[in-house]
Amino acid sequence: MTPPLRVGCVGAGYFAQFHYDAWARIPGATLVASVDRDRSRAEATGLPAFTDTDEMLKAAEPDILDIILPPDQHLVNICSGIARGVKAIICQKPFCRDIHEADQAIEIATEAGIPVIIHENFRFQPWYRAMKAALDRDAIGAVHQMTFRLRTGDGQGPRAYLDRQPYFQRMPRLLIHETGVHWIDTFRYLLGPPQTVYADLRRMNPVIAGEDAGHVLFGYRDGRRALFDGNRLLDHAAENHRLTLGECLLEGSAGTLTLTCDGAEHLSANGSRRVEPLLPARDWPGFAGDCVHALQSHVISALLTETPLENTAQDYREVLRLEEAVYASDKTGQRLQV
After folding, report:
1. Contact at 8 Å (CB) between 104 and 74?
2. Are 10 and 68 in contact (CB under 8 A)?
3. How far apart are CA 160 and CA 280, in angstroms?
4. d(Cα 321, Cα 188) in Å, to the nearest integer?
5. Within its chain, how far is the Cα of 325 from the centroid?
6. Burial of 337 per CB tally in 10 Å (0-12, 13-18, 19+)
7. How far is the C-alpha of 319 from the C-alpha of 330, rounded, in Å?
């Protein structure tokens, strides 16, 4: 493919701002249009504005369709992009309404030979990239366990989520389907596929439809464990609560990697008080360590150089399968093989 690649965005809501900002900073990409049912929001991007995806695809002829919409609008927009012959599609997570609808999208895209990349950006956060590099050089020895404590503090009271993403209140599945999937994918990225899952989920705020707290424990054949301890009501001490969304420990036979709420990462050897900084705290542009920019840059680079893409829809299906296992475990109260 020859740069710059033309990008058309569908969606101009709260999180879309990070997509538009990142695209504007990526060499090899140029924004050509914005779509939103509220034309004024599309116009506010400063791009040619549309209220209909098909109309935009016909007029702007983008190479990449970036879908920045809730799950119930994913499949129809993916089908529109494929019908118009775009070269690639990026789709926000959670991917489609459920795994069956995701399978439809995967089948259609595969038959058309058009890659669909899921915008699962947490694995692109700099601290998880630093963790992966540390694991690759055996910095903490054999991994024993990983723990992430999600503490967003934005799910309290009758106005929970209304100021930023109001549809959260209506989602029948919230904590895992919307948020926990980030760490399902991150655990896979760092530790590989798990063999078992046990989940204990609960709804604490009565104004929302879905669960907003819970624990999910993934087990691995070699004895490793990964724990997602999520609670959207509880807080954590941070100047920017949306930088890391919580705190993380990755512990091994020789040491521990610690992610703190300021985005700093440290390595401490077992039996030693010495702490080695791996990633300093800094004021990142964009969202959560500029991970949106990192993911979109990866897509542009891979398309231009014809190298493998991360987070293809086919690969991301495993995240959806694990998500279903989480809900099944919570429903049955059992640890399940996956």
Report:
1. no
2. yes
3. 32
4. 12
5. 19
6. exposed
7. 17
Owner of token pair 């046990």: 198
Domain 5-119: which CATH number of 3.40.50.300, 3.40.50.10990, 3.40.50.720, 1.10.10.60? 3.40.50.720
CATH 3.40.50.720 region(s) of the chain?
5-119
Query: What are the tokens at 257?
Result: 């990697």
Q: pTM of the full predicted structure?
A: 0.94
Which residue reads 């029948």 in tokens?
172
Q: What is the DSSP string of 250-289?
A: EEESSEEEEE-TTS-EEEEETT---EEEEE-----SSSTT
pLDDT along the chain (338 residues), means of 10: 91 96 97 97 97 97 97 96 97 92 96 97 98 98 98 94 91 94 97 98 97 98 97 91 95 98 96 91 96 98 96 95 97 97
Q: Which residues contact 166 (CB under 8 A, 6 or more apart)?
A: none
Q: Do residues 301 and 307 make contact, with C-beta atoms less than 8 angstroms apart?
A: yes
CATH H-level, domain 123-287+319-337: superfamily: Dihydrodipicolinate Reductase; domain 2 (3.30.360.10)
Pairing of strands 64-67, 88-92: parallel
